[in-house]
Amino acid sequence: IDKPLPLRAGDLIVVMHGDWHVLGASPVLVGDETLVPESKGSFTNVICGQFEFPERTRKLLIDLLPPLVLVRSQDAGDKFGSIMRLMADEGLRQDQGSAVVLDKLADALFVMVLRHYIATCEAPRGVIAALADPKLRALVAAIHREPGEDWTIDRMLKYAPFSRSALMERFTAVLNVTPVNYVVNCRMLEAERLLLDS
Q1: How far from 123 is each of 66, 97, 101, 137, 146, CA to CA, in Å?
Q2: How high is the pLDDT of residue 38?
Q3: Per-residue DSSP letters for 51-79?
Q4: DSSP assignments along 22-45, one per residue
Q5: Which residues have C-beta within 8 Å of that of residue 149, sequence separation ≥ 6?
Q6: From CA 124, how far away is CA 133, in angstroms rounded?
Q7: Cα–Cα distance for residue pair 70/116, rounded to 1 Å
Q8: Burial class (CB within 10 angstroms; exposed 0-12, middle 13-18, buried 19+) of 80
C-alpha cells in the first residue's frame, strides 16, 4: 500500500507476509523511531500478535493472500470484537492455560479473517477461489483432509455436483490444474511435511 490507510476503532488489520509497516496518529510519518507521548490525552489500545504457519500452509494458502487484509468493524459486526476482547482479557490475566486459550482464540480469529476475505474478495486465486466456489468447496476440503485416499474422478463426483466433463472443466478453470494433478500436488506437500517432521 503506497498511501496511509485510515483505521477506526474496532478495525482489524492482518499483515499477511510480515511486511514492514507503521501505525501512527497522523498520516504524515517522520522517521522510524517509537514515539512516546509526553502528556496525557486521548489514547488507543492496540492488540497485536503473530501467526505462524507450517511451510505447507504457507505455500498452499498464505502466499495467495494479499499483503494486507483489513476487516472494518462495521462490516464484521461484533464477532471479531468479541474474540479480541477475550484475547485481551486472557492476555492480561495470564492464568494457568492462558497460552493455550490464546492460541485457540488466535486460530479462530484467523479462520474468521480468512472467511471474511473469501466472502469479500473480488478475484480470488488458487485454493481460495475453490473454497469460495460452493460447488468445489467440499471436494477441495476433502482432498486436503485426506490426500492419501484413492481420489478417482468417480469419488470426486460424490463431493462435487458435476458431470465428469464439467468437473474437469470447472476444476481446471478455477485452480489452473486438473483434479488429478491437484491431488498429486497435495500429496507432494504432505510428503514434504512428513519428511521434515521427525
Answers
A1: 11, 40, 34, 16, 27
A2: 64
A3: ----HHHHHHTGGGS-SEEEE-HHHHTTH
A4: ---SSS---SSSPP--SS------
A5: 155
A6: 10
A7: 10
A8: buried
Give the three cell numbers for residue 133. 466456489
* Dist CA 183 CA 190 (whole Å): 10
Q: How far apart are CA 149 and CA 146, in angstroms?
A: 6
In a 3-state reduction of DSSP, which class is residue 198?
A: coil
The span from the CA of 54 to the CA of 62, in Å, is 10
Write down the pLDDT at residue 52: 80
- Mind giving me the DSSP string for 120-171? H-SS--HHHHHHH-TTTHHHHHHHHH-TTS---HHHHHTTS-S-HHHHHHHH
pTM metric for this prediction:
0.68
What pLDDT is stored for residue 181 in this prediction? 93
Spell out the residues 6+ positions from residue 79 whose beta carbon is closer than 8 angstroms to its own. 112
From residue 23, give the alpha-carbon distance in Å to each of 26, 32, 51, 108, 176.
9, 10, 19, 25, 38
Q: What number of residues does the chain have?
A: 198
φ, ψ dihedrals at 14, nearest 5°: -120, 120
Query: To the nearest whole number, what is the mean pLDDT of the chain?
Result: 83
Q: Which of 59-68, 90-99, 126-135, 174-183 has the lowest mean pLDDT?
A: 59-68
Asked if 60 and 175 touch (Cβ cutoff 8 Å), the reply is no
Please give the grid coordinates belonging to residue 16: 499477511
Distance of alpha carbon 131 from alpha carbon 104, whole angstroms: 22
